[in-house]
């Protein structure tokens, strides 16, 4: 990643994300953090999709839910 | 904007209905093709032509998109003049179906056309299909971005796949 143009792209990326984040209320963030939406197709073998604005801490929860789903299916 | 669900199927359906030429990249690509991971938005690389950008603008409008080039002009894209989807490489929107990132270009993909030829078509159900960049291209993208943005676990997994 030595191309200055690419570095600028990531400056754009951070600024764009920050701009959007400022529009998202804490209630929405909480909903994404806690809301695990089931919308994966059956054909893929599991249905549980975890989407979250706080991307770091939910992976363990997602793994746990996938395991639960596997057990009940 | 009121409470947002995360309905990526509807995003794909809408993009498809407007004949937008796009490829799914990012975390949701990895999720659908490989392993469950958390993701915060839907990342779409679109073909960067004026016709396709226009189709994408209409699709995003139908999805209730909100965006602004600056904080002080953030608002519904229905109020924006056509052609707003240009002038920068990435656009982070809010839509009624969740956050959507539109990329006009992305590190690791030098040619949209070639990436499209290598892409994978995934049928999510009878009505919804989506085209995803190939796993090899997904790896290329990871390797092309600054280290701070990389996902080491994904890189290790993707490197371990058989690309023959």
Helix/strand layout:
The complex is a heterodimer of chains A (73) and B (164).
Chain A: H1 4-21, H2 26-34, E1 36-38, E2 48-50, H3 59-72
Chain B: H1 8-17, E1 22-25, H2 26-33, E2 42-46, H3 50-62, E3 66-67, E4 75-76, E5 90-95, E6 98-103, H4 112-118, E7 120-123, E8 129-132, H5 135-144, H6 152-159
Parallel strand pairs in B: 2-6
Antiparallel strand pairs in B: 1-2, 3-4, 5-6, 7-8
Descriptive overview:
The complex is a heterodimer of chains A (about 70) and B (about 160). Chain A is built from 3 helices and 2 strands; from the N terminus they run H-H-E-E-H. Chain A is mainly alpha-helical and about 70 residues long. In chain A, strands 1-2 form a two-stranded antiparallel sheet. The longest helix of chain A has 18 residues, at about 5-20. Chain A is elongated and about 35 Å long. The model of chain A is unreliable at about 35-55 (pLDDT under 50). With about 160 residues, chain B is of the alpha+beta class. In chain B, strand 5 (about 90-95) and strand 6 form a beta hairpin. Chain B is globular, with a radius of gyration of 16 Å. Chain B starts with 7 loop residues before the first helix and ends in a 5-residue tail after the last helix. The interface between A and B is large, with 39 and 40 residues.
Low-confidence stretches of chain A: 33-57
Overall structural class of chain A, as computed from helix and strand content, comes to: mainly alpha
Which percent band covers the strand fraction of chain B?
A: 15-25%
Overall 3D form of chain A: elongated
Helicity range of the residues of chain B? 25-40%
- What is the strand arrangement across the widest sheet of chain A? 1-2
Oligomer: heterodimer
**What proportion of the residues of chain A form beta strands (DSSP E)?**
5-15%
Summed over residues and divided by their number, the pLDDT of chain B gives a mean of 90
**What is the CA–CA distance across the termini of chain A?**
44 Å
Tally of extended strands of chain B? 8
Q: Please bin the fraction of helical residues of chain A.
A: 55-70%
Distance between the termini of chain B: 47 Å
Largest sheet of chain B: 4 strands, mixed
Largest interface: A-B, 39 and 40 residues
Q: How many whole angstroms does the radius of gyration of chain B measure?
A: 16 Å
**Low-pLDDT runs of chain B:** none
The arrangement of helices and strands of chain B along the chain is: HEHEHEEEEHEEHH
Number of H- or I-type helical stretches of chain B: 6
């Amino acid at each position: 990643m030595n191309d200055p143009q690419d570095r600028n792209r990531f400056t754009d990326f951070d600024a764009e994300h920050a701009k959007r984040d400022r529009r998202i209320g804490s209630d929405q963030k909480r909903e994404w953090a806690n809301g695990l939406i089931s919308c994966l197709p059956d054909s893929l073998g599991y249905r549980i999709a975890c989407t979250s604005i706080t991307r770091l801490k939910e992976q363990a929860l997602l793994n746990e839910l996938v395991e639960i789903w596997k057990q009940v299916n | 904007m009121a409470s947002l669900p995360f309905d990526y199927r509807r995003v794909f359906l809408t993009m498809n209905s407007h004949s937008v030429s796009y490829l799914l990249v990012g975390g949701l690509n990895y999720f659908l093709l490989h392993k469950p991971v958390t993701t915060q938005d839907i990342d779409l690389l679109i073909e960067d032509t004026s016709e396709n950008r226009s189709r994408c603008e209409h699709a995003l409008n139908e999805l209730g998109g909100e965006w602004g080039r600056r904080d002080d002009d953030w608002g519904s894209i229905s109020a924006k003049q056509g052609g707003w989807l240009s002038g920068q490489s990435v656009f982070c929107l809010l839509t009624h179906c969740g956050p959507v990132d539109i990329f006009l270009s992305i590190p690791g993909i030098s040619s949209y056309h070639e990436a499209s030829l290598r892409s994978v078509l995934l049928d999510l159900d009878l009505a919804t299909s989506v085209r995803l960049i190939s796993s090899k291209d997904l790896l290329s993208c990871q390797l092309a971005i600054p280290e701070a943005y990389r996902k080491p676990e994904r890189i290790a997994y993707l490197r371990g796949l058989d690309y023959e």
